[in-house]
Amino acid sequence: MTKTRKPLLKYRRVVIKIGSALLVDRATGLKKAWLDAMCTDVANLKANGVEVLVVSSGAIALGRAVLNVPAGALKLEESQAAAAVGQIALARAWSESLSTDAIVAGQVLLTLGDTEERRRYLNARATINQLLKLGAVPIINENDTVATTEIRYGDNDRLAARVATMVGADLLVLLSDIDGLYTAPPHLDPNARFLETIAEITPEIEAMAGGAASELSRGGMRTKIDAGKIATTAGCAMIIASGKPNHPLAAIEEGARSSWFAPSGSPVTARKTWIAGQLLPAGTLSVDAGAEEALRSGKSLLPAGVRDVTGSFSRGDTIAILGTSGREIARGLAGYDADEARQIAGKKSAKIAAILGYAGRAAMVHRDDMVMTGKRAQEEGSRKDEIHA
Protein backbone atom coordinates (compact mmCIF):
# COMPACT_ATOMS: atom_id res chain seq x y z
CA MET A 1 0.00 0.00 0.00
CA THR A 2 1.34 3.44 -0.93
CA LYS A 3 2.21 5.55 2.09
CA THR A 4 0.94 9.13 1.98
CA ARG A 5 1.63 11.99 4.33
CA LYS A 6 -1.14 13.30 6.54
CA PRO A 7 -1.82 16.73 8.05
CA LEU A 8 -0.55 17.02 11.61
CA LEU A 9 -4.08 16.96 13.02
CA LYS A 10 -4.58 13.42 11.70
CA TYR A 11 -1.88 11.98 13.93
CA ARG A 12 -2.58 10.59 17.39
CA ARG A 13 0.65 11.30 19.27
CA VAL A 14 3.32 13.71 18.02
CA VAL A 15 6.84 14.39 19.28
CA ILE A 16 8.22 17.80 18.34
CA LYS A 17 11.95 18.46 18.53
CA ILE A 18 13.11 22.07 18.66
CA GLY A 19 16.68 23.12 17.94
CA SER A 20 18.60 25.54 20.16
CA ALA A 21 19.00 28.21 17.47
CA LEU A 22 15.22 28.45 17.13
CA LEU A 23 14.66 29.15 20.83
CA VAL A 24 17.70 31.15 21.82
CA ASP A 25 19.48 34.14 20.33
CA ARG A 26 23.10 34.29 21.42
CA ALA A 27 22.95 38.05 21.98
CA THR A 28 19.47 38.54 23.45
CA GLY A 29 18.60 35.16 24.97
CA LEU A 30 15.17 33.53 24.80
CA LYS A 31 13.07 34.23 21.70
CA LYS A 32 9.86 34.66 23.68
CA ALA A 33 7.62 35.74 20.81
CA TRP A 34 8.61 32.64 18.85
CA LEU A 35 8.04 30.39 21.88
CA ASP A 36 4.61 31.92 22.52
CA ALA A 37 3.64 31.26 18.89
CA MET A 38 4.91 27.67 19.13
CA CYS A 39 2.87 27.10 22.29
CA THR A 40 -0.23 28.38 20.48
CA ASP A 41 0.43 25.73 17.81
CA VAL A 42 0.81 23.06 20.51
CA ALA A 43 -2.45 24.19 22.11
CA ASN A 44 -4.21 23.91 18.74
CA LEU A 45 -3.00 20.34 18.28
CA LYS A 46 -4.14 19.41 21.78
CA ALA A 47 -7.53 21.05 21.22
CA ASN A 48 -7.96 18.76 18.23
CA GLY A 49 -7.21 15.61 20.23
CA VAL A 50 -3.50 15.24 19.40
CA GLU A 51 -1.16 14.29 22.27
CA VAL A 52 2.00 16.41 22.13
CA LEU A 53 5.48 15.88 23.55
CA VAL A 54 8.26 18.43 23.12
CA VAL A 55 11.96 17.63 23.03
CA SER A 56 13.44 21.07 23.60
CA SER A 57 17.05 21.96 23.06
CA GLY A 58 18.31 25.26 24.39
CA ALA A 59 19.33 24.71 28.02
CA ILE A 60 23.04 25.26 27.47
CA ALA A 61 22.49 28.07 24.96
CA LEU A 62 20.05 29.83 27.29
CA GLY A 63 22.33 29.32 30.28
CA ARG A 64 25.20 30.88 28.33
CA ALA A 65 23.03 33.91 27.63
CA VAL A 66 21.92 34.24 31.26
CA LEU A 67 25.49 33.89 32.55
CA ASN A 68 26.99 36.06 29.78
CA VAL A 69 29.42 33.30 28.79
CA PRO A 70 31.55 34.43 25.81
CA ALA A 71 31.18 32.78 22.41
CA GLY A 72 33.33 29.76 21.62
CA ALA A 73 33.73 26.14 22.64
CA LEU A 74 32.98 25.25 26.26
CA LYS A 75 34.74 22.82 28.55
CA LEU A 76 32.56 20.03 29.95
CA GLU A 77 32.18 21.67 33.36
CA GLU A 78 31.31 24.99 31.70
CA SER A 79 28.61 23.32 29.60
CA GLN A 80 27.18 21.62 32.67
CA ALA A 81 27.14 24.88 34.65
CA ALA A 82 25.38 26.63 31.77
CA ALA A 83 22.88 23.77 31.58
CA ALA A 84 22.18 23.97 35.31
CA VAL A 85 21.10 27.60 34.92
CA GLY A 86 19.53 27.13 31.50
CA GLN A 87 17.33 24.17 32.46
CA ILE A 88 15.55 26.23 35.11
CA ALA A 89 15.06 29.16 32.75
CA LEU A 90 13.94 26.90 29.90
CA ALA A 91 11.41 25.00 32.01
CA ARG A 92 10.00 28.26 33.36
CA ALA A 93 9.68 29.71 29.85
CA TRP A 94 7.78 26.67 28.54
CA SER A 95 5.56 26.56 31.61
CA GLU A 96 4.64 30.24 31.35
CA SER A 97 3.96 30.15 27.61
CA LEU A 98 1.84 26.99 27.75
CA SER A 99 -0.12 28.26 30.74
CA THR A 100 -1.58 31.00 28.53
CA ASP A 101 -3.78 28.24 27.08
CA ALA A 102 -4.24 26.55 30.48
CA ILE A 103 -1.78 23.79 29.58
CA VAL A 104 0.47 22.30 32.25
CA ALA A 105 4.11 21.57 31.37
CA GLY A 106 6.07 18.71 32.93
CA GLN A 107 9.86 18.68 32.77
CA VAL A 108 11.59 15.35 32.01
CA LEU A 109 15.40 15.24 31.94
CA LEU A 110 16.88 12.09 30.43
CA THR A 111 20.36 10.64 30.14
CA LEU A 112 21.57 8.04 27.66
CA GLY A 113 21.22 5.33 30.27
CA ASP A 114 17.53 6.13 30.73
CA THR A 115 16.81 4.78 27.26
CA GLU A 116 19.64 2.26 26.87
CA GLU A 117 19.00 0.31 30.09
CA ARG A 118 15.74 -1.59 29.85
CA ARG A 119 14.41 -1.03 33.39
CA ARG A 120 15.08 2.71 33.28
CA TYR A 121 13.62 2.88 29.78
CA LEU A 122 10.36 1.35 30.99
CA ASN A 123 10.28 3.66 34.00
CA ALA A 124 10.82 6.77 31.87
CA ARG A 125 8.11 5.59 29.48
CA ALA A 126 5.65 5.07 32.32
CA THR A 127 6.34 8.57 33.69
CA ILE A 128 5.86 10.24 30.31
CA ASN A 129 2.70 8.26 29.58
CA GLN A 130 1.26 9.31 32.94
CA LEU A 131 1.95 12.97 32.15
CA LEU A 132 0.09 12.56 28.86
CA LYS A 133 -2.78 10.78 30.60
CA LEU A 134 -3.11 13.74 32.96
CA GLY A 135 -3.23 16.17 30.05
CA ALA A 136 0.21 17.71 30.55
CA VAL A 137 2.77 18.40 27.84
CA PRO A 138 6.12 16.74 28.66
CA ILE A 139 9.07 19.05 27.96
CA ILE A 140 12.00 16.71 27.49
CA ASN A 141 15.72 17.40 27.26
CA GLU A 142 18.98 15.59 27.83
CA ASN A 143 20.20 16.10 31.38
CA ASP A 144 23.30 18.05 30.39
CA THR A 145 24.24 18.78 34.01
CA VAL A 146 25.24 15.16 34.61
CA ALA A 147 25.78 13.66 31.13
CA THR A 148 29.45 13.22 30.27
CA THR A 149 31.15 13.63 26.92
CA GLU A 150 31.59 9.87 26.62
CA ILE A 151 28.10 8.85 27.76
CA ARG A 152 25.56 11.12 26.13
CA TYR A 153 23.32 11.50 23.13
CA GLY A 154 25.17 14.61 22.05
CA ASP A 155 22.17 15.82 20.06
CA ASN A 156 18.44 16.02 20.58
CA ASP A 157 17.49 14.62 17.17
CA ARG A 158 18.28 11.06 18.19
CA LEU A 159 16.96 11.67 21.70
CA ALA A 160 13.66 12.77 20.14
CA ALA A 161 13.57 9.63 18.00
CA ARG A 162 14.15 7.45 21.05
CA VAL A 163 11.40 9.28 22.91
CA ALA A 164 9.06 8.83 19.93
CA THR A 165 9.67 5.09 19.84
CA MET A 166 9.50 4.85 23.63
CA VAL A 167 5.99 6.31 23.80
CA GLY A 168 4.65 4.82 20.58
CA ALA A 169 4.29 8.16 18.76
CA ASP A 170 3.13 8.02 15.16
CA LEU A 171 4.88 11.24 14.08
CA LEU A 172 8.22 12.89 14.90
CA VAL A 173 8.68 16.50 13.79
CA LEU A 174 12.24 17.84 13.71
CA LEU A 175 12.15 21.65 13.58
CA SER A 176 15.45 23.15 12.53
CA ASP A 177 16.98 26.00 10.55
CA ILE A 178 16.63 24.02 7.31
CA ASP A 179 13.32 23.15 5.67
CA GLY A 180 14.05 19.53 4.80
CA LEU A 181 16.39 17.10 3.08
CA TYR A 182 18.28 18.04 -0.07
CA THR A 183 20.40 15.87 -2.35
CA ALA A 184 23.38 17.96 -1.20
CA PRO A 185 23.90 20.81 1.30
CA PRO A 186 22.03 23.69 -0.42
CA HIS A 187 24.42 26.34 0.92
CA LEU A 188 27.29 24.56 -0.85
CA ASP A 189 25.60 23.23 -4.00
CA PRO A 190 23.22 25.54 -5.92
CA ASN A 191 21.97 22.52 -7.86
CA ALA A 192 20.88 20.64 -4.73
CA ARG A 193 17.42 19.14 -5.19
CA PHE A 194 14.80 19.20 -2.44
CA LEU A 195 13.24 15.86 -1.47
CA GLU A 196 9.63 16.13 -0.33
CA THR A 197 8.90 12.45 0.33
CA ILE A 198 11.38 9.78 1.41
CA ALA A 199 9.84 6.31 1.20
CA GLU A 200 12.86 4.56 2.71
CA ILE A 201 16.18 5.59 4.24
CA THR A 202 18.66 3.95 1.89
CA PRO A 203 22.47 4.27 1.86
CA GLU A 204 21.98 6.88 -0.88
CA ILE A 205 19.74 8.94 1.41
CA GLU A 206 22.27 8.63 4.23
CA ALA A 207 25.02 9.89 1.92
CA MET A 208 23.10 13.13 1.39
CA ALA A 209 23.45 14.17 5.04
CA GLY A 210 25.74 17.12 5.71
CA GLY A 211 27.39 18.42 8.89
CA ALA A 212 26.25 20.57 11.80
CA ALA A 213 24.77 23.89 10.73
CA SER A 214 25.21 26.27 13.68
CA GLU A 215 27.27 27.01 16.77
CA LEU A 216 24.28 26.66 19.07
CA SER A 217 23.30 23.23 17.72
CA ARG A 218 25.23 19.98 18.13
CA GLY A 219 23.12 18.25 15.49
CA GLY A 220 23.10 18.38 11.71
CA MET A 221 21.44 16.50 8.87
CA ARG A 222 23.50 13.44 9.78
CA THR A 223 21.82 13.15 13.16
CA LYS A 224 18.41 13.81 11.61
CA ILE A 225 18.83 10.86 9.25
CA ASP A 226 19.98 8.73 12.19
CA ALA A 227 16.82 9.82 14.02
CA GLY A 228 14.76 8.91 10.98
CA LYS A 229 16.16 5.39 10.93
CA ILE A 230 15.22 4.89 14.58
CA ALA A 231 11.75 6.37 14.21
CA THR A 232 10.64 4.88 10.90
CA THR A 233 11.80 1.38 11.85
CA ALA A 234 9.35 1.60 14.75
CA GLY A 235 6.48 2.65 12.48
CA CYS A 236 6.73 6.36 13.26
CA ALA A 237 6.67 8.87 10.39
CA MET A 238 9.09 11.79 10.51
CA ILE A 239 9.03 15.35 9.19
CA ILE A 240 12.00 17.69 8.85
CA ALA A 241 10.83 21.29 8.56
CA SER A 242 12.01 24.82 9.13
CA GLY A 243 11.16 26.24 12.51
CA LYS A 244 12.23 29.78 11.66
CA PRO A 245 8.78 31.31 11.02
CA ASN A 246 6.38 31.98 13.87
CA HIS A 247 3.76 29.22 14.15
CA PRO A 248 5.93 26.58 12.40
CA LEU A 249 3.48 23.75 13.12
CA ALA A 250 0.62 25.71 11.62
CA ALA A 251 2.83 26.34 8.60
CA ILE A 252 3.39 22.60 8.14
CA GLU A 253 -0.34 21.99 8.48
CA GLU A 254 -0.97 24.59 5.78
CA GLY A 255 1.47 22.98 3.35
CA ALA A 256 4.81 24.69 3.97
CA ARG A 257 7.80 22.93 2.44
CA SER A 258 9.02 19.98 4.50
CA SER A 259 10.47 16.51 4.01
CA TRP A 260 8.30 13.57 5.07
CA PHE A 261 9.84 10.18 5.88
CA ALA A 262 7.43 7.27 5.56
CA PRO A 263 7.11 4.85 8.47
CA SER A 264 7.99 1.20 8.02
CA GLY A 265 5.11 -0.87 6.71
CA SER A 266 5.93 -3.59 9.23
CA PRO A 267 6.99 -1.85 12.46
CA VAL A 268 8.78 -3.92 15.05
CA THR A 269 7.36 -4.79 18.44
CA ALA A 270 7.98 -2.59 21.47
CA ARG A 271 10.82 -4.74 22.81
CA LYS A 272 12.49 -4.93 19.41
CA THR A 273 12.04 -1.19 18.95
CA TRP A 274 14.16 -0.75 22.07
CA ILE A 275 16.82 -3.10 20.67
CA ALA A 276 16.89 -1.39 17.27
CA GLY A 277 17.18 2.08 18.77
CA GLN A 278 20.20 1.37 20.99
CA LEU A 279 22.77 4.03 20.15
CA LEU A 280 25.85 2.30 21.51
CA PRO A 281 26.08 -1.40 20.57
CA ALA A 282 28.55 -3.16 22.84
CA GLY A 283 30.15 -5.06 19.95
CA THR A 284 29.68 -6.47 16.47
CA LEU A 285 29.31 -9.82 14.76
CA SER A 286 30.27 -10.06 11.08
CA VAL A 287 28.44 -12.81 9.20
CA ASP A 288 28.85 -14.66 5.91
CA ALA A 289 26.48 -14.60 2.95
CA GLY A 290 24.59 -17.71 4.04
CA ALA A 291 23.93 -16.33 7.52
CA GLU A 292 22.90 -12.96 6.09
CA GLU A 293 20.30 -14.62 3.88
CA ALA A 294 19.06 -16.71 6.80
CA LEU A 295 18.63 -13.60 8.95
CA ARG A 296 16.69 -11.84 6.22
CA SER A 297 14.32 -14.80 6.07
CA GLY A 298 13.64 -14.51 9.80
CA LYS A 299 15.98 -17.14 11.23
CA SER A 300 18.30 -16.97 14.24
CA LEU A 301 22.04 -16.34 13.91
CA LEU A 302 24.00 -19.56 14.45
CA PRO A 303 27.71 -19.62 15.36
CA ALA A 304 28.61 -21.27 12.05
CA GLY A 305 27.68 -18.15 10.12
CA VAL A 306 29.80 -15.74 12.19
CA ARG A 307 33.09 -14.70 10.62
CA ASP A 308 34.37 -12.15 13.14
CA VAL A 309 33.60 -10.86 16.65
CA THR A 310 34.62 -7.42 17.92
CA GLY A 311 34.09 -5.58 21.17
CA SER A 312 33.77 -6.55 24.81
CA PHE A 313 30.20 -7.53 25.60
CA SER A 314 28.30 -9.78 27.96
CA ARG A 315 25.39 -12.07 27.33
CA GLY A 316 22.25 -9.94 26.98
CA ASP A 317 24.07 -6.85 25.71
CA THR A 318 22.93 -5.25 22.45
CA ILE A 319 25.27 -5.97 19.55
CA ALA A 320 25.28 -4.97 15.88
CA ILE A 321 25.32 -7.61 13.16
CA LEU A 322 27.23 -6.72 9.99
CA GLY A 323 26.57 -8.26 6.58
CA THR A 324 29.07 -9.15 3.87
CA SER A 325 29.20 -5.51 2.75
CA GLY A 326 30.38 -4.45 6.20
CA ARG A 327 27.15 -2.49 6.78
CA GLU A 328 24.87 -3.12 9.74
CA ILE A 329 21.93 -5.36 8.84
CA ALA A 330 20.53 -6.18 12.29
CA ARG A 331 20.82 -5.67 16.03
CA GLY A 332 20.18 -8.18 18.73
CA LEU A 333 20.88 -9.35 22.25
CA ALA A 334 24.02 -11.44 22.55
CA GLY A 335 23.49 -15.07 23.53
CA TYR A 336 27.12 -15.36 24.69
CA ASP A 337 29.85 -13.26 26.25
CA ALA A 338 32.36 -11.87 23.74
CA ASP A 339 35.14 -14.33 24.68
CA GLU A 340 32.81 -17.30 24.28
CA ALA A 341 31.46 -15.90 21.01
CA ARG A 342 34.99 -15.75 19.63
CA GLN A 343 35.62 -19.36 20.59
CA ILE A 344 32.56 -20.73 18.83
CA ALA A 345 32.46 -18.34 15.83
CA GLY A 346 32.41 -20.33 12.60
CA LYS A 347 31.72 -23.60 14.42
CA LYS A 348 28.69 -25.90 14.18
CA SER A 349 26.22 -25.63 17.06
CA ALA A 350 26.77 -29.30 17.89
CA LYS A 351 30.37 -28.51 18.85
CA ILE A 352 29.50 -25.77 21.38
CA ALA A 353 29.50 -28.10 24.40
CA ALA A 354 32.91 -29.52 23.52
CA ILE A 355 34.44 -26.07 22.99
CA LEU A 356 32.95 -24.26 25.99
CA GLY A 357 32.59 -27.16 28.37
CA TYR A 358 28.82 -26.76 28.72
CA ALA A 359 25.78 -27.06 26.51
CA GLY A 360 25.02 -23.48 25.55
CA ARG A 361 22.37 -22.01 23.31
CA ALA A 362 22.32 -23.15 19.71
CA ALA A 363 21.96 -19.55 18.51
CA MET A 364 24.53 -16.78 18.83
CA VAL A 365 21.59 -14.34 18.61
CA HIS A 366 18.04 -15.73 18.73
CA ARG A 367 15.53 -14.35 16.27
CA ASP A 368 13.21 -13.35 19.13
CA ASP A 369 16.01 -11.09 20.42
CA MET A 370 16.86 -9.58 17.02
CA VAL A 371 15.55 -6.90 14.69
CA MET A 372 16.63 -6.22 11.12
CA THR A 373 17.87 -2.64 10.70
CA GLY A 374 19.26 -2.56 7.16
CA LYS A 375 17.77 -1.39 3.88
CA ARG A 376 15.55 -4.43 3.42
CA ALA A 377 14.63 -4.64 7.08
CA GLN A 378 11.42 -6.48 7.80
CA GLU A 379 9.60 -7.65 10.85
CA GLU A 380 10.37 -11.21 11.88
CA GLY A 381 9.37 -13.39 14.80
CA SER A 382 6.32 -13.17 16.99
CA ARG A 383 4.46 -10.02 18.08
CA LYS A 384 3.67 -11.47 21.50
CA ASP A 385 6.34 -9.23 23.10
CA GLU A 386 4.07 -6.23 22.47
CA ILE A 387 1.77 -7.27 25.29
CA HIS A 388 4.53 -7.70 27.85
CA ALA A 389 6.88 -4.89 26.81
Tell me what you see in this structure.
This protein has 389 residues and is α/β, with parallel strands linked by helices. Helices cover 36% and strands 19% of the residues. The protein is built from 15 helices and 17 strands. The strands form four sheets. Strands 5-6-4-1-7-11-12-10 form an eight-stranded mixed beta sheet, sandwiched between helices. Strands 14-13-15-16-17 form a five-stranded mixed beta sheet, with helices on both faces. Strand 2 and strand 3 form a beta hairpin. Helix 2 packs across helix 4 and helix 7 runs parallel beside helix 9. It is globular.
Fold blueprint:
Layout: E1 13-18, H1 20-23, E2 24-25, E3 29-30, H2 32-47, E4 51-56, H3 59-67, H4 76-99, E5 105-110, H5 112-116, H6 118-133, E6 137-142, H7 156-166, E7 171-176, E8 181-182, E9 194-195, E10 197-198, H8 203-207, H9 221-233, E11 237-242, H10 248-253, E12 258-261, H11 270-277, E13 283-287, H12 289-296, E14 306-311, E15 318-322, E16 328-333, H13 338-344, H14 352-356, E17 370-372, H15 385-388
Parallel strand pairs: 1-4, 1-7, 4-6, 5-6, 7-11, 10-12, 13-15
Antiparallel strand pairs: 2-3, 8-9, 11-12, 13-14, 15-16, 16-17
